[in-house]
Amino acid sequence: MVVVYAVLGETATLIDTGNPGEKSFYQLKSLLKDHDLSFRDFDHIIVTHMHTDHCGGVSLIQQEASLPVYVHELARPVITGGETEFNRINLFFSDFLKECGADPAVHQHARKYKEEIWQNVHYVNEGDEVYIGGRPYSVLHVPGHSQTDILLIDELQGITFVGDHIIPELAVNAFIEPPVPGRKHRPSPLIQYRESLIRSKGIKLGKCYSGHGLPFTQHNELIDKRLAQQDARCQQILKVLKEGDKNVYEICQKVYPHLKGKIVFLGLSQIQGHLDLMEARNEVMKEERDSIVYYRVI
Ligand SMILES: [Zn+2]
């Protein structure tokens, strides 16, 4: 289930836009109609992060009602970079799969470039204020699940839109992403994600509205649970590596044996994220052999 929020107050604001494509667009349109709303009734759209199930509807909605869209600054290269950026991202993932010891021909999604134009984009940063339903919310940048994740916090009302940063129903992945254009090294998403989670723990978020599932409170307990799950996964990987050196693909086959075909990427991304963390903790070291990276226990 993907959640889109229509927040009504002095104004109406749309948070996230659902999946790309006409089916999702018309579904959302008819859901709004059930509440006597149309896209034209909204002041703007805020995108919690640049995953297609959250930002996929932007261009179709803008074609119908030219609403401004707010999104984190790190979304700028994808939104403005066109085919060049698309190709750079594809090449990054192809190289990443090879480095893992996986075959891009089998495990990489063959995506075709489709031009998508966003208009009237406002890029936000940590500490900015955005208006939702006519009330000011502060923006907190919480990279990890994606590089563009933001929390939208109304401290006075005790309401936070958390996107996919924390979801009670599922343990959120921290996805491997390319470096921003011009940088050499990719981010370490799980390390970032844990830092962001620990940061969120220190903040009163009140009632949290996530991108998948029902609203919840007690985010601190949930964060402790997620951090412990990640530590347990590191222990599992360590156990696999004690049998001998392995590349990310080999570890993935042991840890997530059910993953096949294109979705293997999800497992590789997870394993790599944990290995980054274990490397930072001096638990493992890596070595490149024939362009494939192997990990061993220290
Ligand atoms: Zn997401």
Give the helix/strand layout.
Elements: E1 5-8, E2 12-15, H1 22-34, E3 44-46, H2 52-55, H3 58-64, E4 69-72, H4 76-80, H5 82-100, H6 104-107, E5 121-124, E6 129-132, E7 135-141, E8 150-154, E9 159-163, H7 189-201, E10 207-210, H8 219-242, E11 246-247, H9 248-255, H10 264-280, E12 284-289, E13 292-297
Helix pairs in contact: 7-8, 8-10, 9-10
The chain binds zinc ion (ZN).
Cofactor: Zn(2+)
Protein name: MBL fold metallo-hydrolase
Domain Metallo-beta-lactamase: 1-212
Characterization of the model:
The structure is a single chain. This protein is an alpha/beta fold and 298 residues long. The protein is built from 10 helices and 13 strands. It has a domain at 5-90 and 111-225: Metallo-beta-lactamase, Chain A (4-Layer Sandwich), CATH 3.60.15.10. Zinc ion binds at residues 49, 51, 145-146, 164.
In short:
Residues 1-212 form the Metallo-beta-lactamase domain. By secondary structure, the protein is of the alpha/beta class.
Named CATH topology of the domain at 5-90 and 111-225: Metallo-beta-lactamase, Chain A
What's the tally of helices?
A: 10
CATH class of the domain at 5-90 and 111-225: Alpha Beta
Write down how many β-strands occur, each being a DSSP E stretch of 2 or more residues: 13
CATH superfamily of the domain at 5-90 and 111-225: Ribonuclease Z/Hydroxyacylglutathione hydrolase-like
InterPro entries: Beta-lactamase_class-B_CS, Metallo-B-lactamas, RibonucZ/Hydroxyglut_hydro, Sec-metab_biosynth-thioest
Keywords: Hydrolase, Metal-binding, Zinc
Domain Metallo-beta-lactamase: 1-212
Pfam family, one: Lactamase_B
